Structure formats: structure tokens, C-alpha cells
Please model this.
Amino acid sequence: MGGTGGIGAMTATAGSEALTTLHKIFGYEAFRGEQEAVIEHVVAGGDAVVLMPTGGGKSLCYQIPALVRPGTGIVVSPLIALMQDQVDALRALGVRAGFINSTQDFEERRVMEAEFLAGELDLLYLAPERLRLDTTLDLLSRGKISVFAIDEAHCVSQWGHDFRPDYLMLSVLGERWPDVPRIALTATATRATHQEITQRLNMPSARHFVASFDRPNIQYRIVPKADPKKQLLAFLREEHAGDAGIVYCLSRNSVEKTAEFLSRNGVEAVPYHAGLDAGTRAAHQSRFLREDGLVVVATIAFGMGIDKPDVRFVAHLDLPKSVEGYYQETGRAGRDGLPSTAWMAYGLNDVIQQRKLIQSGEGDEAFRRRAAAHLDAMLALCETAQCRRGQLLAYFGQDADPTGCGNCDTCLTPPETWDGTVAAQKVLSTVVRLQRERGQKFGAVQIVDILLGKRTAKVIQFDHDQLSVFGIGEELTEGEWRGVIRQLLAQGLLAVEGDYGTLVLTEGSGSVLRREREVPLRKEPPKPVTSRSASSGSAGKSKAKTAAAELPENLLPAFEALRAWRAEQAREQGVPAYVIFHDATLREIVTVWPSTVGELGGVSGVGEKKLATYGEGVIGVLAGLTGSATPGTAASELSDGPSDDPGAWPEEPDMEPEPDDWA
Ligand code: ADP
Ligand code: ZN
Model:
């Protein structure tokens, strides 16, 4: 803690200064959740480790202390490609922000350094690989620093999915600047990562703030994989036409193919993976941030730190390697709090492929064990018959509503379970016969063909129609048998071995074969359900998930007119539309219907700078819409639901919504 003066008095002033900053600069009414406590603690000079889900509001936790405390806040972030946008967004708020990174030329860097040394910056963004340079550390020690913010702090975790070696050296910050408070922030929440962050960043006396990790506006759904690209297309067409979203695939090849497939079928999509050159990657990322409704198909190399608030869906075509990774990726949907979907297609091949990857991958035995434990947790999530959100929160050590969340697939359409003991025995017996009688091991395809009694070329070649188990499984379909095998793998009652993904027994298999345990299984849907609207009739479909969801009909033209105006502004300034105003702010503007610039200032998300820059423009758009610039009259008509007066909404042909937005 900073030691000068009475801490109590300082805290009280700091508190009100923080609140004033929140109102004036950011235009927000009140702090959310833990924000106030974190900010108060850091402004008073304390170290903090902050765990908050994506969209929880981490940025304010360091931006406000940087504004309130004297000096420049140094933000350590691994995301060079996003620094320009982050800084643009802050500058649009009137915050003096800058960055130093390798995308700048010498002169640009020199200007930044001079501004920092002259005390003209509130916030300075740096990548860790730059911070470690002696020249950078020297520069920093010649200026005044208000706070160190270590963003994406889980990158320090060597077992994590985003490890960055340069993060390890950040522990020197505390040694070199013992009086400057440090705040480490992440959306990765397991206790292990939490501990690792605290240790490796050397922050033993930091206070810990753990927010709820629930993201109630995201609907979690995991569907059986049949024809994933087609399933994805149906999902997008039925529920997210015209929406921005991210589709994750494991390989570069499937990224390319999926992006192509979507584009061919009328969904504008671009690929993003490490194999593309830097220019293409930057261009695609920039389009995603700037355009409305673009889909990015990506490997996991895309998305960290993307603060686009209106990502309406995140889809996984392949199984993620861990629940942490999955939760971070899906968390990129719906940061604006509006309804969004996390959708995943998952099948037997995912399990086999991931198990193989772990076995043939690099790393020692301990590494492999950890990877396997991560995969097991992910599989348990996929196979659960319980509330997905409950399972996710439990994984992060948090409580969930025991009666279910009502907004995941298992809550919306509870899966049926069945006693799969006999089916499991049939699969395991087949594996046993092949091994004992023939000394052979085979993969899932051959096992299923044997169970179904299919005389394929390969079955005949190996005389497998002579086995006593041949044809003993005709009561189930091929898809159902694959489902049984997948669930046995997920439950650890069967294992995968070698490069060919052959199936072998585990320690648990014996108890099933000896009938010592039952094997409850989830029923496979008769044919893959592509979406909720397909399974629950029209009810699902009527709930549009676009930004306009739940706005009264009579406000839609105004909302759309403001979006068109915003797009124009964004184009002129070369910034993403959300840098001007978020969708959520536009929604509130049309709901409040301010008739003066002063009234507009009361809307959440409209701070002083934005009011000065855009106030007249917004009021002008609204006035143009009513066809009457008389202040006050429109507000009362509109706040009372649908207007009876059809004349209140003259046609504005130039501002017609894009038809797709409402599909
Ligand atoms: P994170 O970095 O934790 O993912 P952000 O800092 O980007 O989250 O915040 C998520 C969204 O919530 C942003 O659109 C931000 O402007 C908004 N937000 C944050 N704090 C508040 C607040 N106190 N009141 C209203 N909106 C807020
Ligand atoms: Zn649920």
C-alpha cells in the first residue's frame, strides 16, 4: 500500500475520483461487480490479481487507476495486432493512450517515448518481448509510472494454452518498481492457473478478486457431429443470419475448406491461421472488427483480446483440448451482454484424434498426464446429461443453480439416458476376441462393422465374419454404435492406442465385462439436431439473436438509422463501429429517445468526449426520423410502446435496414 498520508482519507477521495472518471470519461452509471473494490485497492497502491470472465469488465480495473493516479499506466499485453484498435478506442474517449511495438517505425516510436517522458500519456501499451529489452526498462525508469497492468496474465502459465515465455520475466517489475502497484488480469480461472500467476509474477501480497464466471447471455450447445460443415451452415442460417461470429477448427486445412464452403453458400467468411502471411491475417482481423456480420474461420491462433462486443456466436467444429480453452474461446461471444450462442459439433473421431495427439505429441510423461486430464474434463462436459453451465462453473470451482440454467441444450431439451451395459459388453467383447483369438487390434470402424455383421472387404480379408461376435449388434445403428464407443472412450472404459487409433481395453473394462458395473449412456438423437429451432419448433426461431433482439418494433427503424450513421462515421475515421458507440448504447439511445444533447449525455456509454464529438449527429439522426425537430414531443410518444400515429414514422428510403439483419 502507498504509505503517505491517511489511507482512509485517500481511499475516500480515490473512490469518488474513480466514480467521476467512470461517469465523465466512460459515460457509465455505476461500477459492475468487483470493479469498484479492485479499483479502490489499486488506486491506493495495492497489488491485485483479478479473475473475471471475458466481457466482465477487466479493462476499467486498470484504466481507471491509470487515470486517477499520477503518471502513466503501463499495460503489458501480448496482442500487438490489437494495440492500435485499443488505443483508438481510448482516444475516442479522450484518454491519452499510446503504444510502442514493432509495427511502428523509428520516428513513431520516438514520438511515443517523448510523450511518455513528458508525462503526456495516461496509458502506454507494450508487448512483453519489448518490455524485457534493457532499452525499454531504461525508458520506463526515466518516466513516472502509475500502475503496471499485466493483461492476459494466464500467458505466464507454462501448462496453459497460451504460454508466452516472455511473461516469465515480468516478475522483475516488482523488484525494479516496488512502489508501483501491479494488477494481473485474466479470464482463465482454474485454481492451478491462479496460483501459477501469483507465483510466477511474484505477487505474494496481492489481493485476489474472483468474479463470477457465469455468462448467462451465452447459450451453450453441443451437438453430435455428423456432417459438420452442413450442420454449421444450418445453424448459421437458422439462427445467426447476418451475425458476426467465430468458427474454430483444429487444422489449417479445415479452416480453409470451411471458410470456402461458407462463402460458397452465401455466408461471408474469411480464414485465419498461422500459415497465412501476416498481412492477410491483419487484413482479415481488421475486417472482422470493422465490418458488420463477418464470420472468421480460425485455428485457436485467433481471438485472444479481441474486444469486439457484438460477436453473436462462437462455433467449434473440432473438440478443444481443454475446458479452459473452450471457455475462453466461447467467452468471446456476447461481451455486450446480448443473447449469443456457443455451439459445438462433437463426435467419435474427435476423441480418437485428440487421444492420439496426446500419445504421439511432445513432452514428458507428466505433460501427457496433464493433457489427458484436460481432455477428460472436456469430454465429461460433452457427454454430460446435466446442465452444461453447471458443469462449467463447477470446473472453475463456482456454484451454479442446482435446478439448471435454462439456457443450455441439456436444460432446454433434457437428453434421455439408457442402460448401455449390454452394448458396452458387446463392444468390449469384440475388442477382447480380436486380441485374444487373433492377436489383432482394430479401430472403431472395423469394430462397428463386425458388430453389425457387415461383410466388408476388410471384414472378409481378416475372416472377421468367423468371430462369434460377428453380427451380435444388429439392434443398434452404425451411428448409435459410434456413440457407444465414443462414450466408452470418454468414460475411460476403452482406450485408443498407436498411430492408427486402435481400440484397447483399460483397467475399467474388466468390471464391465464381469457385469460388476452398469454403464449409463446418453441416447444419440435419431438424426443430428442441427439447432434448437429444429428441435423445438418455431419457438426457437422467433427469438432472433441479432443486436436488435427484444427492441420494440417501432424503435427498429431508429436503431437501424443510428447503425447506418455509425457505419458512416466509422468508415470516415477508419475505426471499428463499436469504437463510436456499442450496439447496447444505440439500443438505449432509441429507448430513451433524447431530444437534446444534454439528455443524450445521460445515456449509459456516452461520456463527455463522445457527447462533444457525436452529440449533435445523434440528435440530428433522431430528429430527422420523427420528421419533426420539436424537442420533447417524440420522447413521450415513443416511451409508451407502439405509437398509434402512423405519421410518426415516415419512410426513410435511404435508411432501410439491410434485409438480412432481420432474417
Ligand atoms: P473484459 O476485458 O473483461 O473482457 P471489457 O473490459 O472489454 O471486458 O468490458 C466488457 C464490456 O462491458 C465493454 O463493452 C465495456 O465497455 C462494458 N463495461 C465494463 N464496465 C462497465 C460498467 N461499469 N458499466 C457499463 N458497461 C461496462
Ligand atoms: Zn443449463
Notes: Residues 444 and 473 are 14 Å apart (CA to CA). The radius of gyration is 28 Å.
